[in-house]
Design brief:
There is one protein chain. The protein has one helix at residues 59-72; strands at residues 2-9, 16-23, 26-30, 55-57. It has 74 residues and is of the alpha+beta class. The protein has one domain. Strands 1, 2, 3 and 4 form a 4-stranded mixed sheet that branches. A hairpin with a 6-residue loop joins strand 1 and strand 2. The N and C termini lie close together (12 Å). The structure holds zinc ion (ZN). Residues 20, 30, 32, 34, 58, 60-61 line the site of zinc ion.
Length: 74
Amino acid sequence: MYEMWAEHDPAQSPSAVVWHVVAKDDATASLCGRFLEPSRRVVPAGDGAGAEVPDRYCDPCLLTVREAIAVTGR
Ligand SMILES: [Zn+2]
């Protein structure tokens, strides 16, 4: 099982939110090997008001998920 993890990417200017993928059984690092800081986690507002911050998905994380899905056939 995987979980999505959003955090501010300090390398992005202006600041952007990057979505990483985290395995549920190892939530200390994302699939791309990034150490995850709970203090940096971004929880989307969910009311549509936070749309001023662009978000994007972490390519290495998505690739790993895609490969894992291909291996298990699901
Ligand atoms: Zn990632």
